[in-house]
Specification:
Number of domains: 1
CATH superfamily: Spore Coat Polysaccharide Biosynthesis Protein SpsA, Chain A
Shape: globular
Bound molecules: guanosine-5'-triphosphate, magnesium ion
Number of strands: 8
Number of helices: 9
Structural class: alpha/beta
Largest sheet: 8 strands, mixed
Distance between the termini: 34 Å
Oligomer: single chain
């Protein structure tokens, strides 16, 4: 994307975020979030969202949680179901993708005082019982970024192409980032809220590898915990068929690695010229 198109998109994103945050404030008031924000993106998940939000732990390691669901361009009432269940919904007026939705959720978490972020998916594929273990190394200060790994735990998915893709992309990221990674696209992650202010997150939809690679290349201490990856019981994937998903995912992965590598080269060069 050229510079002018990128700055146009940033301006549009800012406008959409502003509308959503104002609507959130009008509905939920000026509440402060609990120390742990469990943030999920949801698009057309009306059939399962109530079960998912009600299954999230209210307290982890003695820290209260706030469940924040970011929906965008919805027409099936997902946001209303979240609010009726007593949880928090950020509702953006247009559909932009999971990456843009999570970014908005991270922003809300920063602005409303949360200390830790945990992500999960709204489609019920993440097991809420795995969340505490993911947050543990972050709270104790052992790690700056924790990812769930279905390969260290288990996956109920039987799609061979998907399962092979998980191994291929994990191997690629391990080599490129020189850090052992076994699952790059797991919905469960935990990190301090402050991290989201110091890394670049730009991808509108395929966000998992961008967040992971940016965190590792920003120097985060990385850990993985075993998790169970369940299959979707209702609704449909928003990521396209295996081939399109794999291709787009790979493109984001390589683009992010290149961007971060260039950034660190520029920093090294300017540090050298300063001495
Ligand atoms: N707000 C919002 N959420 C989205 C969008 N696309 C996907 N999501 C949510 O992001 C989560 C993951 O999306 P999925 O479509 O399940 O994709 P995935 O889990 O990466 O891949 P699958 O293995 O195909 O399920 C789900 O909770 C979706 O509802 C979007 O455009 N906007
Ligand atoms: Mg899914």
């Amino acid at each position: 994307m050229n510079t002018r198109a990128a700055s146009r998109r940033r301006a549009t994103d800012e406008l959409v975020d502003r509308v959503a945050l104002d609507e959130f404030a009008a509905f939920h008031g000026d509440l402060t979030l609990n120390p742990v924000a469990i943030v999920m993106a949801a698009y057309k998940e009306a059939d399962c969202i109530e079960t998912v939000v009600k299954g999230m732990p209210p307290v982890i390691h003695g820290l209260d949680t706030s469940v924040v669901v970011v929906v965008d361009g919805e027409d099936d009432g997902t946001g209303r179901i979240v609010r009726d269940a007593g949880h928090l919904a950020v509702i953006a007026p247009v559909n932009r993708g999971q990456g843009a939705a999570l970014r908005l959720g991270y922003r809300l978490a920063r602005e409303r005082g949360a200390r830790y972020l945990v992500t999960a998916d709204a489609d019920g594929q993440a097991d809420p019982d795995d969340i505490a273990a993911a947050l543990d190394p972050v709270v104790t200060g052992e790690a700056d970024f924790v990812n769930g790994s279905r390969r260290l735990g288990e996956t109920h998915g039987t799609d061979l192409m998907r399962n092979v893709g998980v191994v291929v992309y994990a191997t690629l990221v391990s080599v490129l980032c020189r850090t052992p990674v076994t699952d790059t696209a797991n919905p469960i992650r935990a990190f301090p809220v402050a991290l989201t202010a110091r890394i670049d997150l730009e991808e509108p939809q395929y966000q998992a590898s961008e967040l992971l690679i940016s965190a590792i290349m920003a120097g985060c201490r990385y850990e993985e915990v075993p998790v169970t990856m369940r299959t979707r019981v209702t609704g449909a994937s928003k990521k396209g068929g295996n081939f399109a998903y794999g291709l787009r995912y790979g493109r984001v992965l390589l683009r992010t690695w290149w961007r971060e590598r260039e950034k660190s080269r520029r920093l090294t060069a300017s540090a050298r010229s300063a001495v």
